[in-house]
Design goal:
The protein is an alpha+beta fold. It is about 30% helix and about 30% strand. One of its GO terms (biological process) is terpenoid biosynthetic process.
Length: about 280
Amino acid sequence: MTNPIFFPAPAKLNLFLHINGRRPDGYHELQTLFQFLDIADELSFTPTHQSEIILEPPLPGVNNSDNLIIRAANLLKPYTDKARGVKITLKKNLPMGGGIGGGSSDAATTLVVLNRLWQCGLNNQQLGQLGRKLGADVPIFIHGYAAFAQGIGEQLTPAFPAEQYYLLLTPNAMVSTAKIFNHPDLPRSTPKFPPEQYCYEKTANDCQGIVTDHYPEVAQALKWLVEYAPARMTGTGCCIFAPFTTLSAAKAVADRCPAQFHSRVCQGMNQSSLYKKLEGLGL
């Protein structure tokens, strides 16, 4: 029996996140810089001749109707020429509600891989349009390369941030993205700037203050890590990260991490590990 092939669904960081305004439809105008990390969930796909989408193991507390992996697979069904099903096995390595894109990345990997296995024939732009129905971050994982994002996250400009090392802390908290973006005190008027003027030290995460006010575990993690490096939150949290120029420097701080936080050292990547895997397999 052939061993299943597992495809990565990599994590991402928002190296900064500025909220520039709120549109009449309720969506927020923003600017952010996405970079991938060398840590990932892993998914395998076994096509079947039945129409059922099976996910093993099921995600605790998540109904199939809400599961982004199953929803992604179902979005592709109209583009197949016959009844298609699949058994999907998930190795969940990334925290849920961490702000590093676990669910969105899982959905993107499902769209990209099944598009090939089911021979749907969609290009990445078309897959991105499907992905946007699942979440604002799904298209960047389909895009597969580090990018400066604007608008509601759909306007992507290629970016090449340094592929440095990061210490990533995961506090014991699950942040509600909807709660943060709907909060009346969220800053919504940060001026826009051209992508070429990006500088880490001159940017921030506009969601960070609201999150640390309402989630003390996140505030504690940030307070500890900022003593060692210019730390900030990614996305709407809960994960906190800090950049380091060397692996040894990141590991030295990780060794001091309090037991209440889960820590890991990882490296930034400007190409998604999913596409590296697909290239290696000739897919």
